[in-house]
Structures are given as C-alpha cells and as structure tokens.
C-alpha cells in the first residue's frame, strides 16, 4: 500500500487513522499482533523495530527469546473490523544485533529465502501461485474436552439435519449431504456474506476470481483469488483467513478452515495452482508436451510428487488433515498426476491452455498449514525435481487420466499413497528433508522444532478418548 514512511503519515493524517497494528505469524501459522498510536510510528520503528518475546511465538528458547520485528509498510491495509480507525501491516522477525539480522525460522523470512534460492540457481525469478480457499460457516459451534465429558456440537441453518426442526420458522430449503456445489438461493443462505468477504478482500488489494457454495451441505464455501508471487500470496493467505473469520463473526456466525469439521461431508482443502516465470516469460508451457507442459514443468511435478509424503508435514500439518485425505471424496490420496482429474495429487487444469496460463495444482494441502512454510516447501520440492530432472513417468506417477477410485485393488496398489496420519508425515520428513535444507532455506533446527511440537500435538490428541470409541466398545 505504501512505499515510504511519509506516504503512511500523510494517509493517516488525511484519513483519521489513529492506530498502527503490526501482525506477525507464529510458528504454527497464527497471527499475533501489537498496536501503537499513530503518533509513535516513525523512522525509528522501521529501523530499530519493536521488541517482543520470541519464545511465546514458538520460535526461540526462553533464554534467547528477546527479538524484534520490523514492519513492512508495503503490506499495509486498512482494518475494517475494528472500531478505532487502524492501519495493519505485517512484520518480519529479526535477531537483535548491530545491525539486526533476519531470523531464519521466521515464516516470512523462510519464504523470502526460498524465493532467493530459486533465483540464485537460475531456474526462475518468480513462482506465481493461486490458492483456493475452502471453509465452513456455521451458526453455532461448541466443544467439550473435560475428563468426564468429550464432544462437539455444530449447527447450520441450511443443513439437512434441520429438515424436521419444529422450531418456527423452519422454511425448508435445506441442502442435502454433499449436495451444495454451486447451489443457488434460497438454499444458499450465505451468498451475501461471501460477497461482503470478497469486497473486503478487493479493498485490501486481493483480487477475487469468484466465490460459490461448495459441495458440503452445512455451509461449505469457496473463495478463489487471482494468482500472484509466492511470498505475497502467503501474506494474502493470512489476510483471507483474517477476513473470512472476522466477517463471519460480524454477521453473528463462525467460520473454520478445519479440513474435516463434519463427518460424512466434503472436507476443506487449500489447492495451490502454480507456475514459474523468468524475465516475464512462462516456463511451464510446451505445445508438444503432455497436456501442454514443458519438461521443466514435468520435472517440477516429479519433485513435488517424489517428496509429497514429506511435504505433508507442512502442507497437511494437523491430525484432522488425515480425516480429509481419505478415498471417496475429492481429496486426493494417490501420489500421481493427471489432466482434469481431481482424484490425483497433481491436477493439470484442462481450461488453462495459453503459455501464460499453463500451470498445475497441488490438491492435497489444507489451510491448517502455515502458508509461508507450506508454499516454500512446495517450491523447494519442485526445484529439487528440476535440478535432478526427476521424471514423473519414470517414477511411476502417471499420468493417470482416469478416476483412480475405479481402479481394481491390484492396480491401486501400484500407486503410492499419501500418509495416513500426521505421525506418518513427520516420519516421512525425517527421512526425506535434504531438499528443504538446501542453502539453509529451512534451517535444520526449524525442522527439529516443528517435528517435536507436532508430535506432541498428535500425541495429546490421540490420547483423548473419542465418542465413537464409546459407541463401538462401551458394551464389550
């Protein structure tokens, strides 16, 4: 939004801005923030930064936890969800010194390092990506995790389970299970809310391609945005999640990006479209290649698929992720690629045929990911494929231009599967991590911290009795 401090100060004065809010991304991908009066925002803020406790962000040990963040004024947006007129901007984490140096575990710094590594090896100067955001909007959510009581209750006006509700008024127009794709009003009761979300995003310089109701009946939505440079799109991913959640709350509803909040319904993914450019020229197009893809594009696909089990540690980093990655839905479980095939990990859109549009999408990820780590890991896997000329055909990854779920069991066994749990994904990354640590893009210490915290998270959740276990075993 701004290029200079003076531009910020002039805008604030002309538009009655009273507060500057700084947002930083912690290890797991949650935003933290600090606000200061606009009068305190000056040159020193940009040079010296603002101190904070890095250990509470999941980064540094307590004994070395003093850090600073420096705001990036180019990311500034007006926050529409607060009462006091406020400009919000993203900060980068630095290690205190003379001068300060970028902290190598900071998510945004990892993404910057990955982009610089791509340029340094001469493959490309831009990775352009476009995430698709799937999420649920509910009227009510409550959950209980006490020792004597474990359960969750969700409700949504348009859900099929409310067909027989006697409370007045019940106007009907409920969406059948898995029947929500592109459904129109009056069944689609969330059209106006999605439109509000999109208007907020447009005002924040996040162009929206379209929005619609997704397959899931109880309030499953999708907003797809235009493509852009990788790190910029990671910033915008954080903003999209912020807008969706706060716009829902402002409408007296609640939004979640959980991969599988409702059993038996379609889950929420975060498909990522991608292609590479160099000197403004597309690198993924070849009119004579499979589906119009160049050798570089196929090698990039080969790298992603070869490393996809390890990638899941960052692209599908929750125990809930693996309740979505199951056969029978559009979530892919087979490590392969194909054209226009939503059951493959890599799908090549058949409609994107021009050189500038030719791309593919990685379909297995979800929005529980820290987007900076996830997008960077995908880039590093693809670059490894290009450097080592990994041929996806020779690796047995396809192409499979068929519905994979219709293959016989013997044929399905020939195709490798994605991890079945977060623990399996972490195991895969511990065995296959060197593509991430090239040029120290992902510091080894970051991988160790990530693995340790995610294993603790999985263990804690797995130790909790599940209501389904009572149904299955209580009377035995």
Fold blueprint:
Layout: H1 5-15, E1 19-25, E2 31-37, H2 43-48, E3 50-53, E4 66-71, E5 77-78, E6 86-95, E7 101-102, H3 107-120, E8 126-138, E9 140-146, E10 149-155, H4 191-203, E11 208-213, E12 220-225, E13 228-229, H5 230-250, E14 254-256, E15 272-278, E16 281-282, H6 295-306, H7 308-315, H8 321-324, E17 334-339, E18 344-348, E19 360-362, H9 371-387, H10 409-413, H11 422-431, H12 444-462, H13 467-473
Parallel strand pairs: 1-6, 17-18
Antiparallel strand pairs: 1-2, 3-4, 4-6, 5-6, 6-7, 8-12, 8-13, 8-14, 8-15, 9-10, 11-12, 15-16, 15-19, 18-19
Helix pairs in contact: 3-5, 3-9, 4-5, 5-9, 6-9, 7-9, 7-11, 11-12
Could you explain the architecture of this structure?
The protein has 476 residues and is α+β, with helices and mostly antiparallel strands. Helices cover 31% and strands 22% of the residues. It has 13 helices and 19 strands. Strand 9 and strand 10 (149-155) form a beta hairpin. Helix 3 (107-120) runs antiparallel to helix 5 (230-250), helix 6 (295-306) crosses helix 9 and helix 7 runs antiparallel to helix 9. It is globular. The model has no long low-confidence stretch (mean pLDDT 93).
Summary?
This protein has helices at about 5-15, 45-50, 105-120, 190-205, 230-250, 295-305, 310-315, 320-325, 370-385, 410-415, 420-430, 445-460, 465-475; strands at about 20-25, 30-35, 50-55, 65-70, 75-80, 85-95, 100, 125-140, 140-145, 150-155, 210-215, 220-225, 230, 255, 270-280, 280, 335-340, 345-350, 360. The chain contains 13 helices and 19 strands.
